[in-house]
Amino acid sequence: MSVEKTTTTNVKQAVPFFGVSNMEASLRFYVDGLDFQMTNRWVDEGKLRWCWLEIGEAALMLQEFRKEGHDSWKPSGKVGEGVNICFMCEDALEIYHEATARGIKVRQTPYVGNRLWVVSFSDPDGYRIDFESPTNLPEETEYSPEMK
Known about the structure:
Layout: E1 17-20, H1 23-33, E2 37-44, E3 47-55, E4 58-64, E5 84-88, H2 92-101, E6 111-113, E7 116-122, E8 128-134
Parallel strand pairs: 1-4, 5-8
Antiparallel strand pairs: 2-3, 3-4, 6-7, 7-8
């Protein structure tokens, strides 16, 4: 008995789904700060509970966890701790300049790691959001304004 391999791709996209403690703070970070666009949402009892955010061809979902009542959840620690999402870009430094101009702080000075510029942010819940783009500069090169 043999199984034929399908050449058509069934899986199309991985979309991180973050539980967040404060939807408004998360939207300020992602939409106002990093320029994600909200393309879908679920409003329940007049409150935004879930949303789908896109930047370029990538996406993520946010849902504020309920703090009391049905389906409530209280995390034992910082919910985003240890979670790192990498968005591959044409120009990660462009994201760096735009986001910092909007007041978003980077985790550290952008640097080259694995032949990629790495621009790293932390969202309000501690999720690490990296934007990365290819470069030929040496490993561990740190960005400086003179490079612009």
